[in-house]
Write a structure and sequence with these properties.
With 129 residues, the chain is α+β, with helices and mostly antiparallel strands. Helix content is 25%, strand content 36%. A six-stranded mixed sheet has the order 2-1-5-6-3-4, with helices on one face. It is elongated, with a radius of gyration of 29 Å.
Length: 129
Protein backbone atom coordinates (compact mmCIF):
# COMPACT_ATOMS: atom_id res chain seq x y z
CA UNK A 1 0.00 0.00 0.00
CA UNK A 2 1.42 3.35 -0.99
CA UNK A 3 1.25 6.28 1.35
CA UNK A 4 1.78 9.93 0.48
CA UNK A 5 4.05 12.29 2.42
CA UNK A 6 1.39 12.83 5.07
CA UNK A 7 1.00 9.06 5.62
CA UNK A 8 -2.46 8.84 4.05
CA UNK A 9 -3.55 6.18 1.60
CA UNK A 10 -4.94 6.94 -1.84
CA UNK A 11 -8.30 6.26 -3.40
CA UNK A 12 -7.50 2.71 -4.54
CA UNK A 13 -6.26 1.74 -1.09
CA UNK A 14 -9.45 3.11 0.49
CA UNK A 15 -11.61 1.14 -1.93
CA UNK A 16 -9.64 -2.04 -1.18
CA UNK A 17 -10.04 -1.59 2.60
CA UNK A 18 -13.77 -0.95 2.17
CA UNK A 19 -14.16 -4.13 0.09
CA UNK A 20 -12.36 -6.15 2.78
CA UNK A 21 -14.73 -4.78 5.42
CA UNK A 22 -17.81 -5.52 3.29
CA UNK A 23 -16.69 -9.08 2.54
CA UNK A 24 -15.89 -9.71 6.21
CA UNK A 25 -19.31 -8.47 7.32
CA UNK A 26 -21.06 -10.51 4.63
CA UNK A 27 -19.28 -13.68 5.75
CA UNK A 28 -20.09 -12.92 9.38
CA UNK A 29 -23.78 -12.42 8.64
CA UNK A 30 -23.88 -15.58 6.51
CA UNK A 31 -22.22 -17.76 9.16
CA UNK A 32 -24.02 -16.32 12.20
CA UNK A 33 -27.48 -17.89 11.55
CA UNK A 34 -25.98 -21.33 11.01
CA UNK A 35 -24.51 -21.21 14.51
CA UNK A 36 -28.03 -21.02 15.95
CA UNK A 37 -29.63 -23.51 13.58
CA UNK A 38 -31.54 -26.13 15.54
CA UNK A 39 -31.87 -29.22 13.40
CA UNK A 40 -34.70 -30.42 15.57
CA UNK A 41 -37.32 -32.29 13.59
CA UNK A 42 -40.69 -30.66 13.43
CA UNK A 43 -43.88 -32.60 13.88
CA UNK A 44 -45.84 -33.19 10.72
CA UNK A 45 -49.40 -34.26 10.19
CA UNK A 46 -50.03 -37.17 7.82
CA UNK A 47 -52.24 -35.90 4.99
CA UNK A 48 -51.84 -38.66 2.40
CA UNK A 49 -55.29 -40.02 3.17
CA UNK A 50 -56.88 -36.75 2.02
CA UNK A 51 -56.51 -37.91 -1.59
CA UNK A 52 -59.03 -40.72 -0.96
CA UNK A 53 -61.80 -38.68 0.71
CA UNK A 54 -65.33 -38.66 -0.58
CA UNK A 55 -68.24 -36.77 0.91
CA UNK A 56 -71.82 -37.99 1.08
CA UNK A 57 -74.92 -36.45 2.63
CA UNK A 58 -74.23 -38.48 5.76
CA UNK A 59 -70.64 -37.24 6.19
CA UNK A 60 -67.01 -37.84 5.26
CA UNK A 61 -65.75 -41.25 4.19
CA UNK A 62 -62.31 -42.45 3.23
CA UNK A 63 -60.79 -45.52 1.63
CA UNK A 64 -58.60 -46.15 4.70
CA UNK A 65 -59.23 -46.08 8.44
CA UNK A 66 -58.26 -42.53 9.42
CA UNK A 67 -58.47 -43.28 13.13
CA UNK A 68 -55.95 -46.13 12.87
CA UNK A 69 -53.64 -43.98 10.73
CA UNK A 70 -53.65 -41.22 13.35
CA UNK A 71 -53.08 -43.64 16.23
CA UNK A 72 -50.15 -45.28 14.44
CA UNK A 73 -48.55 -41.84 14.08
CA UNK A 74 -48.92 -41.17 17.81
CA UNK A 75 -51.95 -38.88 17.81
CA UNK A 76 -54.73 -39.32 20.38
CA UNK A 77 -57.44 -37.36 18.59
CA UNK A 78 -58.19 -35.67 15.29
CA UNK A 79 -60.80 -33.41 13.71
CA UNK A 80 -61.27 -33.08 9.96
CA UNK A 81 -63.59 -30.40 8.59
CA UNK A 82 -64.37 -30.26 4.86
CA UNK A 83 -66.24 -27.43 3.16
CA UNK A 84 -67.06 -27.96 -0.51
CA UNK A 85 -66.59 -24.74 -2.41
CA UNK A 86 -69.94 -23.51 -3.73
CA UNK A 87 -71.98 -25.49 -1.21
CA UNK A 88 -72.80 -24.08 2.21
CA UNK A 89 -72.59 -27.43 3.96
CA UNK A 90 -69.81 -28.23 6.41
CA UNK A 91 -68.83 -31.87 6.91
CA UNK A 92 -66.92 -32.95 10.00
CA UNK A 93 -65.22 -36.15 11.08
CA UNK A 94 -63.58 -36.44 14.49
CA UNK A 95 -62.39 -39.09 16.87
CA UNK A 96 -60.51 -39.44 20.14
CA UNK A 97 -60.17 -37.40 23.30
CA UNK A 98 -58.88 -33.87 22.75
CA UNK A 99 -56.48 -32.27 25.18
CA UNK A 100 -55.94 -28.55 25.37
CA UNK A 101 -52.20 -28.68 24.73
CA UNK A 102 -49.95 -30.09 22.01
CA UNK A 103 -52.25 -29.57 19.02
CA UNK A 104 -51.11 -29.41 15.40
CA UNK A 105 -53.18 -27.80 12.66
CA UNK A 106 -53.07 -27.68 8.88
CA UNK A 107 -55.44 -26.50 6.18
CA UNK A 108 -55.61 -26.32 2.41
CA UNK A 109 -57.62 -27.29 -0.63
CA UNK A 110 -58.27 -30.77 -1.98
CA UNK A 111 -60.41 -32.49 -4.59
CA UNK A 112 -63.22 -34.62 -3.15
CA UNK A 113 -65.80 -36.90 -4.67
CA UNK A 114 -69.25 -35.52 -3.91
CA UNK A 115 -72.36 -37.05 -5.45
CA UNK A 116 -70.41 -38.72 -8.24
CA UNK A 117 -68.61 -35.48 -9.17
CA UNK A 118 -65.13 -34.31 -8.29
CA UNK A 119 -65.32 -30.96 -6.55
CA UNK A 120 -62.88 -28.53 -5.03
CA UNK A 121 -63.02 -28.32 -1.23
CA UNK A 122 -61.27 -26.62 1.67
CA UNK A 123 -60.12 -28.75 4.57
CA UNK A 124 -58.99 -28.13 8.12
CA UNK A 125 -57.20 -30.90 9.97
CA UNK A 126 -56.33 -30.65 13.65
CA UNK A 127 -54.61 -33.43 15.59
CA UNK A 128 -53.75 -33.81 19.27
CA UNK A 129 -50.93 -35.79 20.89
Amino acid sequence: MRLNKKGEGGFMESVMVMMIVIISLTLFLAILPSAFNNDKETDTIPTEFLNDIYVTDSGISCGIDIEETMKSDGFTAFRLVVRIIGIDERYELSSGERSSDNMLYTSGTILVNFGGRTMNAEYELAVWR
